[in-house]
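Predict structure. Chain length: 300.
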Amino acid sequence: MEEGRVVGGLLHYVSCLELVNRKLPFGIAEVGKCFHCFSEDEHNDLPLIRIGERTVASLTWFSSAKTSGQWRDYWLRHRLLWWQRFSQVPSRFSSDHQDNMSVIHYHFPWGKEPVESLCCMDEASLTQMHCGGSAKLHGRDGRKSVIPHVVWVSGDLDRGLLAYLSDALQLTENQLSRGKDQQRMVLKIHPSLAPIKVAVDLGKGPAVDLRLVCQGLSDELRESRISVWPGYLDTLQTPMEQLFTKYDEMGVMFTVLVSDITLENGLLQLRSRDTTIKETMHISKLRDFLLQYITATKKH
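Prediction complete.
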């Protein structure tokens, strides 16, 4: 796949047109590696050319000429809102427009860089790709038979990931720190994107018994598709506040501490990454609480 060209979607247009009974509009989505050439030193007379690799997700959208402008506006608005939805600071994502090209940028600390682009093409993009008559290119737009226009959306997933990591990294005041380090680093990844939802670790108590409880709890959470970091497997004892700091920097949403109190009456401690609030909860209610929290965040 060559970056910057909507080859795959156009190439498979005819076969996909048959799959949808020749009805417009429809789209073809792709994800894959793209390669591009770049110069290592632009100021050198004979620059060293390297091949770069990126992971790109694209959508090739086919619609009638009459509605292509509406679809262009729809996809641009939809994609910008999607990027902003998972951001801690939505205004860092913005869009620029020029002729038939629109670009969604993220404002990094060093300047803005594109994470997604959108361009519009007329029917010539299809007729040039598919030679030998245009009859096979016609799709149905209501009662009309037309060769569609194309809206192509292409996102750089590697740069998008970097944008969300940059967006999530926050430095907040550490209320517990009395030394030189007065700031607390938190990777505040959106709950829908956070790769690890909860860390299960040990508090005070008999290590062997507590690890068995942690193992059972972790298995229960994983069965409900809740990702777990098995901190209880670490044999090194870490002070609680250092443990919380480590999980905050990892972006873990919740930390669960199982202790001798859990063995006695089933109560454990749950600590939130975002609020730093610690609360006591019965072990039987933890799974439902996490599922409700994750479900609620997906709706916003």
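Summary: The chain has a mean pLDDT of 88.
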